[in-house]
Amino acid sequence: MAQPPSITLHVPEGTESDGQEPSPDNERALHTSFHQLILEQSSLIEADLELELQERDRDACAVAWPEPGQDEEHPSYSSASLQILASMPSRTIGRNLGAIISQCCNRTAQLRRRSTRPPLQQLSRAARPSLRQYDLEADPTRATLEDKRRQLVKELLSLSPSQCSHMLLTMPVSLVEKRILRRQLSRQRGPLRQRAHHRAPFSPCGWSKVYVLVSQGYRLLSLLRAAQPWHYALKQIGGRFGSSVLSYFLFLKTLVVLNFFSFLILLAFVVVPQAVYPPASVSPQPFTGLELLTGAGYFTRSLLYCGYYSNVTLNDPCPSSPEGSVCPLAAPVLPYNMPLAYLFSVGVSFLVTCVLLVYSVSRSFRGNVGSSKGDLAIKVFGAWDFKVIQRHSVKLQCENICTQLKELLVELRSRSRSRSCSQRLGHCIVMLLAWLLALGSALGCALAVHYFSQHMRMEQQARGSGRWQQEALLLVLPLVVSFLNALMPHLYNLLAMWEKQDSPVTQIYVAIFRNLILKTMVLILLCYQWLNWSVICSTEECWETCVGQDLYRFMVMDFIFALLDSLFGELLWRLILEKRLKTKQRPEFDIARNVLELIYGQTLTWLGVLFSPLLPAVQMLKLLLLFYIKKTSLMQNCQSPSKPWQASRMSTIFITLLCFPFFLGAAAFLSYTIWSVQPSETCGPFRGLGTIYQSGKRWVLVLEKSNPNITWFAWVHQHLLENTSILFLMSMAVIAVIYFNIQVVRGHRRVIRLLQEQIVNDGKDRTFLIEKLHSVYKWKDR
Amino acid sequence: GRREGSGAMGGSASLIPRDLLGEYQELTFLSKQEILLAYKRFSELLPREERENACSVRVPKSHILTLPELRANPFQHRICHVFSTSETGDDSMSFEDFLDMLSVFSDSATSDIKSHYAFRIFDFDDDGTLDRKDLEQLVNCLTGQGEESRLSSAEMEQLIQNILDESDIDRDGTINMSEFQHVVSRSPDFASSFKIVL
Q1: B162/A376 CB distance under 8 A
Q2: Backbone phi, then psi, for A115, in 5-degree steps?
Q3: A378 touches chain B (CB under 8 A)
Q4: Which InterPro entries has this protein been placed in (chain A) (predicted)?
Q5: Are A569 and A329 in contact (CB under 8 A)?
């Protein structure tokens, strides 16, 4: 059976150096310092001054004294037991090189033998030696640094090259040590290389050519990343305001990327072919400056709107032949089916946006699943934002952390104290009232917009046709909507202040949710209007162009109001605070409100892509201008945020919001428009058809007629795309996969709980053994 | 081998040999541009006559602490101490120590590496665990040096007790490396706040 551990007072060798200050990487120096300590103390023990030493050493914390905490509980630990405690594996891993190398060695061994479990007898591989068959002399952690290095090199050689290099990269040792290991690896691989001469001699780990190519590709990507124009601006913002405000600008950058891809696809497949073959149309109206605001006039019959695009095959060699008959010309000159291209490009750009969004959401979710237990510890360990480098901002950050910690402590104290019944009831009533007020105001705004737009339509029909008045009338509805969107969030903030939620984080969530409801209701109302053709526009235009113009106006107004918000909300407010009220306080950058504005603007773009293919370009331009304006305003007028803001979690929430209600809603709107709404008769690429989708169906029929061998394509199209039972089956499959994943996560949580209990029990074991150890030494010393 | 320059400076730029640059790229999380920028900034810390062989010279701690990225950081001394491989214990840093530091603080470093080094930085007495004294010093660094922004001793006691309750799984009164890494892995903000970019 297991032999009892042979505990003897073995002092490890290391007598060369003395009087050195122990550095955590130098194992020998550390053990030497203990050696000195033990010599010192053994003389004092003989003189029976142990208790006095404990008191003296509690003050001198420069020496690496283990367990002063336990010292207070057990004041008479002997030095020998303390020395053994100090060389426990769980302590040494944090401070000496040899232990880290041993741990890497074990990890490498595990990687290599992933399929087989090591037999229980082979305990020499364990980083934490079990008490069974434990022998202090044969302890692997007592091997010298050179031995450990040799063992690690041996393990690394047995790995595949990519795993080897990954292991080297992720080892938490210094660069000097890594270079030594690499040199040893190359020396050992050298003789092997001569034998296997087909392997390319690149580096000690014998990397294959493919891996080198892939790594070069990654280097190129990182080069691209480093060469970005906003790199320095973002660093400046992060350095002064921290990660929270930076997350707004990173979100803006994400939106620019999304719009860029949409814009590319539409440009290449829709705008450029039409620009090369312009349709024969009426000459456009003369350009006046007002078009930039209203989108009408000169822009009406231009590439900007759907109505300009032709519904025929461009560059068709046989334009006059009836449908279905064969064209006698031998070589077609690249005919281009415009309606089909339009439909497919819009579909593909939405698909690409969907893929990019889902990828972003999943990537930010991956880092964000965590339990809420351990808030205070996480807050303290992750509190310091190393990106902040300006002295004044650092001081502010210190003050903020202090305030937040104090608030958290107060909250913890009050949470432990239960609230009285009447207080809870009062709080509930206040919350209910606040929610009713918020929802009621959102509904009221939506109805107000509805009645106002109806009133504007009647006004327009009633009035004469003075062009300036017509254009001015067109702008009033977007102005009113943007004004409501800008005003209501401030009211919601005031409401939240009155409501006084428990924690500031809940306050932020509640404010975001209310703002979200308002914007969603307004957007739903506007979509309903557009689909029902109640847009204020002149009668000779087709309704698609009208809707496109309306969306363009909404986007321009949104941009103007963002400018005004920076001007009044930040600049003017700072001047008032400085000059009139004479305080040093500056306005704060309201991150949640600004991000929701960005999301709203992006939703407008997505809603309008079908009606106006160049809208992503307009949105990109708007975002670029917004970046510089917001950055300048931020630097001049604002101060660092004082409220706690979990940047990572908030970024996840925002990108999820962008994807789920807003993108999905825009996709639903688009699908409904394509499937069920009749296009106009007189203009646009779908004129004369029953629905926009019929252009696709028509193409499939043409294909079928021209080549009877591909009837399977039409069959697939009819039975898969138009059959609702397939969609039902797919959704059932997705729900099943989600349920399965939830069960797996639940199982993991259960295992984690069991392992935590086991660790607690191990800790109790350890305390018990330490007590026994101490009593053995005490008995020995007597 | 061939030498690569930082590109931004003129003819007086010191150069890294190409194979050394490749080795650094393999062994750290930094890209080639970042290494060259680090080289440029490191050699600026040296007096003019020593800039030629910046790869092998050690820079004293006082010079490193003049870098704007470290100048106002309350953990500046610990950072220099943890990353320095100086035999004499004066916390001077060579170019490779400097690269090491930038690699750990870079964008692409894994969360494991970051939490490992964060533990070493927060371990003020270098004993391999975070005991009460370490935690107290950590909180004092976080809240700053001003008198009004320190926690009272009762608040400090409550804070440390709560931290130990939440993170000390084996109940020995200290937080060791695995417990620290376990706590920090639950925080999504940790990796993004533990970053320094040149």
Answers
A1: yes
A2: -80, -35
A3: yes
A4: TMC, TMC_dom
A5: no
Both tokens of A192, joined, read 């092997």
The domain ranges of chain B are 18-105, 111-194
| C-beta of residue A279 within 8 angstroms of C-beta of residue A308 | yes
CB contact A513 to B (< 8 Å):
no
Residue-wise pLDDT tens digits, A411-448: 788 776 666 788 888 888 888 988 899 999 999 999 99
Determine whether the interchain pair A384/B146 forms a contact, defined as Cβ–Cβ distance below 8 Å. no
Question: Which pLDDT band holds residue A252 (cuts at 50, 70, 90)?
Answer: very high
Compute the distance between CA of residue A251 and CA of residue A619 in angstroms, rounded to an integer: 14
CA A17, CA A780: separation in Å to the nearest integer? 31
What is the pLDDT, as a whole number, of residue A396?
82
Instruction: List the 651-680 stretch of A: residues with Cβ below 8 A of B.
Output: 652
A533: confidence class by pLDDT, cuts 50, 70, 90: low
Annotation: CATH topology of B18-105: Recoverin; domain 1 (1.10.238)
Q: Does A753 touch chain B (CB under 8 A)?
A: no
Rounded to 5°, angle at Cα A397 from A392 and A398:
100
Q: What is the pLDDT of residues A620-672, one digit of tens each?
A: 999 999 999 999 999 888 887 777 677 778 888 899 999 988 999 999 999 99
Interface confidence (ipTM) of the complex: 0.89
Whether B18-105 and B111-194 share one fold: the answer is yes
Q: Is A9 on the interface with B (CB under 8 A)?
A: no
User: Does any CB of chain B come closer than 8 Å to the CB of residue A637?
Assistant: no
- Per the rule left: phi > 0, alpha: psi between -120 and 50, beta: everything else, B94 is beta
Chain B residues within an 8 Å CB radius of A95: 120, 123, 126-128
Kindly report the pTM of this predicted structure: 0.73
Amino acid type, A16: E
Residues in A touching B190 (Cβ below 8 Å): 378, 381-382
Give chain A's mean pLDDT: 76
> Is the CATH number 1.10.238.10 carried by domain B111-194?
yes
Could you write out the DSSP letters of every residue in A501-551?
-SSHHHHHHHHHHHHHHHHHHHHHHHHHHHHTT-----TTS-HHHHHHHHH
Domain range list for chain A: 237-280+289-315+334-690
